[in-house]
Amino acid sequence: MAHFPEAFSDLEPHADWALPTEGARFRKLIGSSVDELRVFYDAVFPRVREIRSYLSRNPLDEIPEEDRALLDLLVAFVEYAHPIELNWKITDIDDPFDADRMWFGGRAPVSAAAAG
Questions:
Q1: Residue 58's pLDDT is what?
Q2: What range does the domain containing 26 cover?
Q3: 56: which of 4, 47, 48, 84 lies 20 to 30 Å off by Cα?
Q4: Rounded to whole angstroms, how far apart are CA atoms 17 and 49?
Q5: Domains in the chain: how many in total?
Q6: Under a CB-based contact definition with an 8 Å cutoff, are residues 51 and 4 in contact?
Q7: Is 19 part of a structural domain of the chain?
């Protein structure tokens, strides 16, 4: 399970949302109810600016490993916000395309230089 810096330890109950890959985050999103997502959203939303400020102490390609879970949490929040902010009734569109047929890359590089 992910662990966050001490200043963000109150977010530990939501660490299971801080997933390092797009595929894992997508599966978590569509496998969760809007009510579950709302709990996550409501916990993180008030802290977004503080998280961003904390992570901005280092360039993205120099984020310390001990802060990476917090970055993953912030990325997840950004990816997961739309069903809440758009008042969706479900966490995925009603689409017959099976999510298991989708391909996702690994953990995103944190800078254009890292992408090659």
A1: 92
A2: 6-91
A3: 84
A4: 18
A5: 1
A6: no
A7: yes
